[in-house]
Amino acid sequence: MSAFLDVQNLNAFYGSSHVLHDVSISMNEGEAVLLLGRNGAGKTTLMKALMGLVSVRGGPILFKGTDITGLVPHQIARLGVGLVPEDRRMFARLTVAENLELGRKPGATGRAAWEMDRILDIFPVLRELRSRKAGALSGGQQQMVAVARTLLGNPDVVLLDEPAEGLAPVIVQELAQQFMALRKEGLSMIISEQNLSFARALADKAYVLESGYVRYSGTLAELDANEAEWTRYIAF
Ligand SMILES: Nc1ncnc2c1ncn2[C@@H]1O[C@H](COP(=O)(O)OP(=O)(O)OP(=O)(O)O)[C@@H](O)[C@H]1O
Ligand SMILES: [Mg+2]
What residues does ligand 1 touch, defined as CB less than 6 Å away? Predict the structure, then answer.
C-alpha cells in the first residue's frame, strides 16, 4: 500500500536560487510529522512546495496516490491539503467569525467533517471572541483562528508552519493540548519547528532539515536515542 503522502527527491527554487535539495519525506494517514530546522533550513519552502506555491523539480509528490507535483495551489487545496502559514494571514478588520467563515469549504470527498461546533469545542476561546476584530487578538488567539479557519476547509492533512513561534509559554502549552486533541481525532499533520519542543509529545516522527537537505529522519524514539546524529543541525 502506498503512503498517504510520499515525496521523492523534491527540489525547490526561488528564481535561480536552489533551496530544497532532493528532499524525500513520507507519512501515513493520521500521523503527526515534525519538520525540524533552524532559520533558513527550508521548512517553509517545503510546505510551500507541497502546496504548489514555489516552483519545483524532481518529485513526484504523491498525495493519496495522486501525483500533485506541478499542480496549482487551489487544486492541491481541493485535493485535501491545508496550510496554516507562518504569518497566519488574518484579515485584521474582519471579526473572528468572519475570518472563520472565509475558510469554510467542503473537503476533497465533499464531506464536511469539521463543522464549526466541533472546531469550537477544541478552541473554546474562539466562541467568546467571535465578534472581536481579528486585529485585536493576541498572537496565540490569532494562531487558533488560523488553525480553525484551515480546518473549516476540511483538509485531509494540515501543514502547520511554526505555529508556536513568538507565543508565550502558557499559550504554547494550550496550543499543544489543542493539537493533541486534533491528533486524537485522527487529523494528519505536518508541523514545523526550530527545535524539538512543544510538538514532541504528539509527533510520530521527524525530519531534520538543514540548508535545504534532509539531514536526519526517524521516529521520536529514534531521535531521543540518537541525539548526537542530528542536534548539530538544530539551533539551541
Ligand atoms: N522568497 C524567497 N526568495 C528567495 N529566497 C528565499 C525566499 N524565501 C526563502 N528564501 C531562502 O530559502 C531558504 C529557506 O528558507 P525558508 O523560509 O524555507 O526557511 P525556514 O526553515 O522556514 O526558516 P524560518 O525558521 O526562518 O522560518 C533560505 O536560505 C531563505 O533565505
Ligand atoms: Mg519558515
Answer: 14, 17, 19, 37, 39-45, 86, 162, 194
Which ligand neighbours the alpha carbon of 19 most closely? 1
Nearest residue CA, atom 28 of ligand 1?
40
**Distance from chain centroid for Cα 98:** 22
Which of 15, 27, 59, 56 lies closest to 159, judged by CA?
Answer: 27
The pLDDT assigned to 109 comes to 75
CA of 161 to the centre of ligand 2 (A): 7
pLDDT in tens, 85-119: 998 888 999 999 999 999 988 877 766 678 889 99
For domain 5-233, give the fold.
Rossmann fold (3.40.50)
Name the residue of 10, 43, 207 whose CB sits within 8 Å of the most ligand 1 atoms, as the mutation to test its pocket: 43
Residue 41 has pLDDT above 90, yes or no: yes
The full set of domain ranges for the chain reads 5-233
Quick one: pLDDT band at residue 4, thresholds 50, 70, 90? very high
User: pLDDT tens digit string along 139-149?
Assistant: 999 999 999 99
Query: Do residues 12 and 55 make contact, with C-beta atoms less than 8 angstroms apart?
Result: yes
Q: How far is the CA of 44 from the centre of ligand 2 (A)?
A: 4
* Helices and strands, number each (H, E), in the chain: 9, 11
The C-alpha cell of 123 is what?
Answer: 478552541
- The closest-lying atom of ligand 1 relative to the alpha carbon of residue 212 is 14
Closest by CA to 214, choosing from 87, 80, 60, 34, is: 34
Q: For residue 235, give the ligand nearest its CA.
A: 1
Phi-psi region of 231 (alpha: psi -120 to 50; beta: other; left: phi over 0): alpha
